[in-house]
Amino acid sequence: MSKQMSKLKNSEFVEQKLEQLKNGVSEFLNSEKWKEYLSFQAKFHSYSFNNVILMLLQWEERGKTNSITKVAGAKTWEKLGRFVKDGEKPLIILAPNIKVYTKVQEDNMCTKPLISKFQEGKQVEAKGYISQIISQGSKYGIYVLQTTYMVVKSRNGKVQFEEEVEGTIIINSRVKFEVGDEVEVEGRVSRVSNYKKYKQLKLFNSKKIGKREVSEVIESRVLVGFFPVEVYDVSQTEGKEIPELCNEIQGTSEQAEKLLDVLRNKILDIPVVYEPMQYNGYYQRAHGNLENRIALKEGLSINHQAKTLIHETCHYIMDQKKQKGKINLGQYTEPEEGFDGLYAVEEVVVESVAFIVSQYFNLDTSEYSFEYVSSWSKGNPNKVLEVGKLIRQLSNELIEKLENALNGEEKEQKIA
Ligand SMILES: [Zn+2]
Q1: Ligand 1: centre distance to CA 339 (Å)
Q2: Does residue 93 or residue 44 have the better pLDDT?
Q3: Exposed / middle / buried, residue 235 (Cβ in 10 Å: 0-12, 13-18, 19+)
Q4: Is pTM beyond 0.70 here?
Q5: Three-state secondary structure call for residue 147
Q6: CA nearest neighbour of 346 among 326, 385, 373, 369
Q7: Residue 198 CA to its chain's centroid (Å)
Q8: Residues 143-188: pLDDT tens digits?
Q9: How far is the CA of 115 from the centre of ligand 1 (A)?
Q10: What domains appear along the chain, each with residue ranges and CATH number?
Q11: 282 C-alpha to center of ligand 1: Å?
Q12: Quick one: which of 10, 50, 177, 341 could link to 333 by a disulfide (CB 3.0–4.6 Å)?
């Protein structure tokens, strides 16, 4: 077959496999396994850098050698059908104590017409709605009440003032209110609040009577401190099995052995090393006195090694192209997604390429690749098509390189 004919045949193959991948991903995203996985994942927070360090220090101190993978409180583990093993000590992390303040944008927050009527000790009944939460604790909250109706009585109960009046008063209430709650309150003027010098009402009684639409609510979050939280790593728990995606592809095959050999010895111009690690592999760009390299997880099956080496080779090729400005992943993500968005797109691309290239050389990785691509596609089955052009280009390029190398051509000088 002429070179051009085989190129044409190859791109048809790539096209067909891209379609198969898209369908596989879309099917997986509709599966029970994916839903189960998502609801499981949703129970876990991502922890701050400081908390990760804090956990690692405690882990090390206890002489634990396995890596911490999934961490949650005992209650969360129980909800997932797992229980902390006897004798396991919790890891202590610090959770931020954040107060949320909400505020309705009001032009007219004037209490002046009321202030003169509000001498200390006077009894007040008011109706209105909550326009702002100044603070909210577990026992009581301090709120701004936007009044619509007020009655002010003297100490002996004589009505001194009664009318529909728009003003604001500060209330202390044991009832938890939200912004927009319509309320009725009754109480005694206690003191002038520090808060914008508003009069403050000490309530005997407050109740919610409805809810009104409040247009513009401003929310601010203020870090007021930290409190300790006890968590456990999954290895400290036992019980119901954990839904896992992307299980290792098992087995050995001639094709996989050939691919590994050709990639290592004829295509890659950087070392491939084996290391014990949590991930299946990584590509590391040269920095400091470390050179470019690819690492594979120690102990993986031959079939999985081959797939992973194609995946990491593709990261390497993409990195070379990015540095030369030949690939711009930014066009496939929204700016606000930042680095995470770019990372996710690259994972979709390289695993798609690994799937297609493996298929071309009769190594089926669909069982792993569909789940992997799905998990980086953010639930969007069309993600692989959005980056299809890049997947096609890289797949064709890598297939051609591998074919040439398998046909005995000399090691190429440059990878990309
Ligand atoms: Zn990767």
Answers
A1: 14
A2: 93
A3: middle
A4: no
A5: strand
A6: 373
A7: 42
A8: 777 888 888 888 778 888 787 777 767 777 778 888 889 998 887 7
A9: 66
A10: 3-30+245-406 (no CATH), 106-214 (2.40.50.200)
A11: 7
A12: 341
